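#structure-requests
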Amino acid sequence: MDISKENSIKLLSFDIDNTLIDFNTLKGSFTKTWNKYKTDSNVLLTYNTGRLIDDVLSLIKRGVLPEPDYIISGVGTHIYDYNNKCIVKEFNEVLDDGWDIQSVEKIIHNSNHPINEQPSKFQHSYKRSYFFHDATSEHIANIEQDFANANMYINVVYSGDKFLDILPKWANKGNALQWLLRKLDLNTNQVLVAGDSGNDSAMFGLDGVRGIVVANAHEELYKFTKHRQVYHAEGVNGDGVVEGLIYYGILPAGALVNNEKDHKDDFFIQQELNNIATEDEGEKIALIKEGYEKAIEALRKNITPLGFSACSIKDNIPNGTDENYHSVWARDGAITVIGSLPLIHDEEIHQCQRQTLLTLFEHISRNGQIPSNVRIKDNVPDYSGVGGICSIDSGIWVVIAFYEYVNVTKDIEFLRDHIDNIKETMRWLGAHDSNNDALLEIPEAGDWTDLFGRSYNILYDEILWYRSNVCFGRMLEMLGDYEQAGEYIRWSQVIKKEIIQNFWPSTQQKLFSGVSFAERQFTLGDTSYLIAQTTPFDFSWRCDVFGNILAFLHGTIDAEKAHQTFRFMLGVGVNDPFPVANVYPVVSPGDPDWRPYYTVNLLNLPNHYHNGGIWPFVGGFWVKFINKLGLKEMAISELHKLALINKEGISEEWEFTEWAHGTTGRAMGKAYQAWSAAQYISACHHLKIINN
């Protein structure tokens, strides 16, 4: 949502440590991204930091930070005009009133609290800085009272659970920023601030400012900003700031995608690129574009009065239980809505997107459950799947799709009309976290792999759960409910942390006396991907391809982990002969994970269906995964292969079938599958082969 159009942002006021860069390593993505993508010369960049000026100038000289226009340093005690290379002396005249540095030192020295002075490099004539670990609000109030008793009206700033700054009464990051704005003849509603700790609160407290709170922010800043107009970033440090700058329209959307590390010098990747270089680029693009037009035709075959059908009703004669394909499925419909959003200006497709969501909302149960599907012939909902087990991921996908839809359409009235439905669904989903560990407990056959034996904490479902919390938070932001929005975005960060901890095993994990059996087993080795599932008693080392793809696309893992995962999946050939098999390795008879019901209808034999079958709709996500890694040439090559499997039909060409055999690549399942077509369309737009 481009809020910046209402009041154009003219000045950025950003904290440095643990906001733009990591305090310990000095690493961060902000500098590279800002220097590459910043185009608006009217936006002034200001650092607002606890560091002293010489320290900040050193970081700029070393290339750690880009060149700014102004530096507010020492927690609002100095203003430096970077372009003219001078201190703004008029500001310091304001600070002299009532400031007596010797008296400050004396009062702190006589305090009964365990306070220690910080090194001299953090001190100057308008700032005294100390360490005071784990101080309570009562402790800080006592210190403020000590100064009041001495008739000294100063400013006490406590942050990071250990940093105590004593400043002149008019000195803090907010007052200094306000003074600078007056000097520049700017209003506070033209300012965007970013921070991570309590000493940044004064910036956020200015009337009308907009803000970015990075994911690694301290609780003290969350509490202060909970009623304010802020964007709660999913990323930490510079990644979070870049994310916020995109949200407010300062940087283009591509800044986040292209912010990742370039892996083209990787030997393994280079070999693939060398092979691709021998292919005819023109032929590939021609087939991809032909496939795009055919995908739109296939998508239109699934338009019904109730929304998108799972597959074309006209082209698929039902046989027994297959009749349920002639339904608006929550999962399939949501993925189809998301994939087809680039076609939002096509009125017929747009109305079907909207109707798909409306049909599902119409049948939400009184406890908030989204139906698994709604039968098209009689508008009757079904809330269960195989064995009468409910579909957990159906509701999650609808929450995500609803957000993506309103984010593209900007239809705030539609959002207001149905936000209560989404709240009930989020409450129903949250009830599946029965032990309050941030992860959902999923029953066997409770998600899209409904004939494949997975249960309890399943990677795919947990990734979607993380994303749905983010999406719900974003929707609440759109409605101005910043307090609840912040709570959901913050909870999503807890979910993310639990996913990494539980699904990325490492021999480096520390063992404590209370760890589970599964955690002990994790220490037997390391992995290059997020494993498929965990339970209190065991785990699966298999690679859930779809789950790992979504993990990177939804920001649950960073580019480095995604690169490791990509190398693994590429190495074992999940994309051969076509993208992609849904799991590696497949489950074979005699394997402990084998279930007798895998032979039902011969669906889940090795390399069939959910047991290593190739799913073209997942292939669309796979192409976007590779493109987000910055490997566009490889993404185009994989999109060409995806076009080939979508062209491969059972009765005729371009049937966009449901799935294909994992080794032969022969088309299987239903023809003209809606999500296969929609995700192909989405991948084409993601690579900008087709202009939006």
